[in-house]
Amino acid sequence: MELPLLDDMHVHLRQGAMLRHVVPLTRAGGVGRCVVMPNTDPPLTSVDSVRHYKRELASCSTDIDFLMTLYLCPALESMDMAAAREAGVVGIKCYPQGVTTNSDWGVADLQRYDALFAEMEREGIVLQLHGEVPRTPASDVCILNAEERFLPEVVRIHKSFPRLRVVLEHVTTAAAVACVKELGEKVGATITAHHLDLIVDDWAGRNHNYCKPVAKYPHDRDALREVVSSAHPRFFLGSDSAPHPRSAKEGACGCAGVFTAPLLLPYLADTFERIGMLDRLHDFGCVFGRTFYALPAPQGRVILEKTEQIVPDEYDGVVPYRAGERIGWRIV
Ligand code: NCD
Ligand code: ZN
After folding, report:
1. To test the ligand 1 pocket, which listed residue (130, 239, 240) has its Cβ within 8 A of the most ligand atoms?
2. Collapsing DSSP states into helix, strand and coil, what is residue 303?
3. Straight-line distance from the first to the last Cα atom of the chain, in angstroms, rounded to the nearest whole number
4. pTM across the whole model
5. Which residues lie across from 235 on neighbouring strands?
């Protein structure tokens, strides 16, 4: 099967030695262009830090087009958005405080940023939302309902800024799928490879399948599969590949994040074939994302062969998704 290189609209490429391992592996997984998340330590909060980070990424692979993001925080309120765009910034990522890895600098009050959202709407910068409300001592919020509780905020932002492009990242619930479908053409959603596979039982007690937002109920997974299978153009690939060292995943308090980058396209082909929607892979992985982001068609192509391979136990100290399991496809 021959496809264009994937557009992965949500990926974590990390820093330092981890970055140098992960970037070439991302290319090996079939990705030609990606939206790079800004939750580094410290996070990307200035145009200079984005330029520097992008140069570092490019020094590890000249074959990937890196689309950059900034981390929503007060420093962005006085930033020149046109200058940010020139530095390669396509979006601003909002992490509600405390909901996931490196979200401590995140947002406590989204309404505070309404003036910035208006500026982003004018400049064509995408707002990327990690859609989970934080837990508070008095509320009944938990990881199973945190995404659904966030949805009214998506509706509010869309109604207030109808021309602002908004992406609800890594959706995991039937409720989120329904909400995005109902909103206008400026609202899209990314879906990961692993959320098309997993439900609660698959991560409870299995740290390597634990990520935020967590995989939910079978009917939620079915809603993700159905919307992809229906070829809805506002639902597209964002792998949320999020590597952590084995020790950080397997400790008493394991980090959230599933590492799919090295075999992203084979995982997708395996899942899409298993659930009878292989013919949807091309548009989901190569067309709908770039159309939403208004990007040109990519140059490179990739050939997948229907040959079994066993997923390695580890890549440089990071355990990949489905380690040790058989998958039905490989990139040749
Ligand atoms: C991501 C990470 O490790 O950076 N983790 C995750 O579980 N998805 C952060 C994120 O996207 O939430
Ligand atoms: Zn992520």
Report:
1. 240
2. strand
3. 10
4. 0.98
5. 189
HEC assignment per residue over 6-68: EEEEEECCCCHHHHHHHHHHHHHCCEEEEEECCCCCCCCCCHHHHHHHHHHHHCCCCCCEEEE
Asked if residues 108 and 97 have their Cβ atoms less than 8 Å apart, the reply is: yes
Active site residue 130: yes
SS3 120: helix
- Mark the residues whose beta carbon lies below 5 A from ion ligand 2: 240
Cα 83 to averaged position of ligand 2 atoms, centre (Å): 25
Compute the distance between CA of residue 143 and CA of residue 210 in angstroms, rounded to an integer.
11
Confidence of residue 197 (pLDDT cuts 50, 70, 90): very high
| Residue 282 designated active-site | no
Nearby residues of 218 by Cβ (< 8 Å), 6 or more positions away: 199
Rounded mean pLDDT of 310-322? 98
* Helix-strand-coil split of the chain, %, nearest 5: 40, 20, 45
Our answer to whether residue 10 is catalytic in this structure is: yes
Q: Under CATH, to which class is 2-331 assigned?
A: alpha beta
Q: Report pLDDT digits (tens) over 149-180.
A: 999 999 999 999 999 999 999 999 999 999 99
- Res. 100 pLDDT band, cuts 50 70 90: confident
CA of 47 to the centre of ligand 2 (A): 21
